[in-house]
Amino acid sequence: MTEDLHGFSKRRSCSSENEVDEYLEKLMLEAEKENRELKGDQVVSLPDEKLLEKGIELGYFSRRGNEALLTEEGVERSRQLIRSHRLAERLLADILNFSDEEIEEDACRYEHLLDESAIDSICSLLGHPRTCPHGNPIPPGKCCQGGAFKFRPLVVPLTELEPGEEAEVKYLATTDNDRLAHLTSLGITPGQQITLLRRRPAYVVQVDTSVISFDDEIAGQVYVRPVKQAVAVKKGRRFRWSRKFLRGR
Amino acid sequence: MHLPAHSEQQETIEDSRKILLVGQANVGKSVIFASLTHRYVTVSNYPGTTVEIMSGKYRGFIVVDTPGILGVIPRGEDERITFEMIATAAESDILLHVADAKNIKRSLLLSLTLAEAGLPMIMDLNMIDEAERIGISIDEKKLEELLGCPVVKTAAVFGRGIEDLKAAIEKAAPPKIAVVYDPKIEAAISEIEKLLPEKYMKRKRFVAVTLISSNLTAVDEWLKDADENARKEIKRIILRTQSQFGEPLSMMIVQARTNIVERLYREIVRGTVFARKVSLALGDPAFHPVIGYTLLIGVLYLMYQFVGVFAAGTVVDYLESVVFGEWFLPFMDKLFRLLPWSFLYELFMGEYGLISMGLTYAIAIVFPIVTAFFFMFSLLEDSGYLPRLGVLLNNSFEKIGLNGKAVIPLVLGLGCGTMATIVTRVLETRRERIIATLLLALGIPCSAQLGVILGFFSVLGFKALLLFFFIIGLQLILVGYLASKIIPGKRSAFLAELPPYRLPLVKNIVFKTYHRAKWFIKEAVPLFLIGTLILFITDKAGILPVITSAVSPIITGWLVLPEKAAEAFILGFLRRDYGAAGLFYMFQNGLMDRLQAFVSMVVITLFVPCLANFLVIIKERGTKTALAIVGFVFVYAFFAGGVINWVLRTLNLSF
Questions:
Q1: Whether B103 and A201 lie within 8 Å, measured CB to CB
Q2: Strand partners, B268
Q3: Predicted-assembly ipTM surpassing the 0.95 threshold
Q4: Chain A partners of B248 at a C-beta cutoff of 8 Å?
Q5: Which overall architecture, per CATH, does domain B183-280 show?
Q6: Per the CB < 8 Å rule, is A211 touching B403?
Q7: Which residues contact B418 (CB under 8 A, 6 or more apart)?
Q8: Does domain B18-169 have CATH number 3.40.50.300?
Q9: Residues B116-133 pLDDT 10s
């Protein structure tokens, strides 16, 4: 954790972080103000050629004749930036009680720092808020879709994973040395990548080349960080049983 | 079967240089052992324990096949003996670490643990064929260089690399690689080293690190004959050191080793690993809620065909009526008739004679059934199905206070309850062992009894058989559930490795079956003889008729069975199949109607285990627990039988 914090302070401030990002944000804010949606293939006028070249390289813009166009990726990126920024504001305001100036300064940094999965986790943590503290809308992420949500922090016990998910073991929440010895000698050590194969009839995980099975009690003690943050774990499990039956999970 | 005297055995172990075969379970230690020692094998109990150690000769060495360990710290008596053997090994002894090549990280973690002993070592990457098949290529020369001791690759089941291994034994050297822990832990290690008893002094770092990694109770277990103050001081050091860290010390130690393992791994492993993702894509059929149980029923049916029909039918018939009936027993009969004392004749060849009943029962009936059962069991074990069955049944077993591991003794109980009761040792807590023993004693019919039961139901019909299994199953669940609520102690969590499905090799199945059958002869046959002896004495003292008349009122009044059934129940305590067979005889001769026959079958199945099984329960669980279990089963069998009788009569059910 301490290393991350050092990383924070070395980062430059919002405005100079990345000019392309800054421009994308500006586009989104303008669109919001004019009450229209930002779309792919729309013509944009960038302030200079260098910026355009860099943006094309990143895949956010394209050229058509003399015109510069915004790509779908560009739209997505700007949505993501605004989303990160406003969620960070929410986090700082609601959870950490930061003042307005502090919020503005820090949220700027967070939006570039956090990846999509981390943002989704913050979003879940905050209960999928719709607006930032200033009342502006927060573009919904994948985690907000569906209407019913399950909160999932970054590091979760294995019981929160769905079959097929990969994760990195973070820690083993037991002080029983016998159990620790048993788990570690089967290869379940912090830092190890594991894949959850199934939850029923018991937990089965793949650790490198071996397959280990254990019950709910142990699964609840193995804390992992999912490699790909799960796309919204929906509560509505319609037709779920049939799929479950077919796969036998 | 020739077994040398114990004292002689111990002497040779003390004097010669030893090669300790050490490794995790199921990595092929026994096969390596067999290919080094060939037929020069002896089995002896480790001094002061019931754990059996196989040892054999190879050139000038005594090769010892130690109980499989998981790593880091010993868990259970078996593993503790392996640690003890390492901790007290002489300077000239050699550690042969048999490792699973495809689980290289885990294997290296154990290597680093073993390296702590400072003994000459060899690392054997066994099952290298499986590793290669999934795309792992290991640079053993590089590993040799990094560890500082010889590394060889073998696929022992196919005899591959055994010559390299033999050559490496000559070059065994203490590993140069060493793990350095946090300075505070290192300080604790050197403090503890000074307090250790003399016998551990040569391996003091190994012992000290093991103690620090363990729960505090391990200090008392390891150092039970050490100085009281030293023990207290060691505990104080561990507690003090622990208080300086937020994480358990064992975790810190594992972490330090894991860091080195990761470095080694990067240096020596080439190639991408095609991990076995197949199980994810297709789903393992053994776990499927429908296919899994269908498969289970199929496997049970196959077992029934082989064990119940072939072994218990064909083989037993031949052995009992031809080999024993026409040849062995008449011969012994003539032999004992030559003796002047009729008492001795009665003792060996009478109605309850040691030979005519005890030996005949053990060798002609139980032995072939159990051997056939062992064969099937080894097949299931080697194919990888058995541990998966544990996973499938884990949830159901949890409801009755057990976990998936209990599948081993409970399935074995269908072969022989006596043997299965011994095998309850694989369960981790005392509570689980008691519950498993209780269920085995109560309602798991052994193969000898199953044979008669199935004979019965060929007359009573299939519907009656289903009802019978339903009732017995219900009793097991009910009693198991209640026992899990009443018997104190905690449930142990289920944690097991699932080996890949493998095509079992006939050679290994035969090897395992042979050793298990041998074990049965050594462990169980004497119990059958003692049981017969007790029966003989009871009969001579005239106690049998007394018991019979004492229980008759329950039989006739409560169970509504003919008085003669009492005799069959008493006999059932001595021989399960005799009891059931006695009832069958009564049914065939019209002494019981169909409903009475059904009730009597339920009661004899639930009724107390055979005498041999009872003796094993005393040996394994202690007299008090054994009496409590058998007393409960006795009462419960009659109680349940009466209730079922009443329900069936009230509902006017007929078969």
A1: no
A2: none
A3: no
A4: 175, 177, 180
A5: Orthogonal Bundle (1.10)
A6: no
A7: B524, B527, B609, B610, B612, B613, B616
A8: yes
A9: 999 999 999 998 988 888
